[in-house]
Every structure is written in C-alpha cells, then in structure tokens.
Specification:
mainly alpha, 76% helix, 95 residues, 5 helices, single chain
Length: 95
C-alpha cells in the first residue's frame, strides 16, 4: 500500500477519521504514515489534490514502463477498450 496516497486521500475525503485509521496499520507503517501526515497536514485541500494527482500520474507512468519492459510492447498498440483492463490486471498481479 502506498502510504503517501493513503494520507492524501484521507486528508482530502475523511480528515477527521484519518488519524484513527492509522491505528489499523502495523507499527512501522503507522510511524511512516504519521510522518507523512505531519508534512501534509499544513497544506490546503487544493494543494493536496494537486499533489495526489501528480503522484497518481507518476505511478501510472511507472506502471506503463514496467508493463512495457515485461511484455515488450506499448499499451497503445492495444485497442482503447482493452488498455484499462490490462492496466488493472497488471496492478492486481503486481501490487
């Protein structure tokens, strides 16, 4: 699980419940998430949304690059209707 993404989404959607949710994590993940949260809390909601979008874009590009290196072809050669399925399948297979 990407703790940074968890913190972004938690602060954007459920800020009042986020800190209580951290107690569900193992101690090492909880400490890391708490540290991330302390740096993100001062940011405005607009800045959180922008940073979360940037993180999602970076993860998407990395996933496409990894897919290309393993499959040997770009997703663009697939029909547009198959591309989201392929990406979803890859994400489920490789976390």
């Amino acid at each position: 699980m990407n703790l940074e993404a968890f913190c972004y989404l938690g602060l954007i959607r459920f800020p009042e419940q986020l800190e209580a949710s951290l107690s569900l994590f193992p101690d090492d993940a909880k400490a890391e998430a708490s540290q991330i949260l302390s740096t993100l809390k001062p940011l405005s909601k607009a800045e959180l949304v922008q940073r979360w979008a940037r993180l999602r874009d970076e993860e998407y590009v990395a996933m496409r690059r990894d897919l290309f290196s393993r499959l040997g072809f770009q997703l663009d050669v697939l029909s547009p209707s198959l591309q989201p399925w392929c990406i979803s399948w890859w994400a489920n297979q490789h976390g």
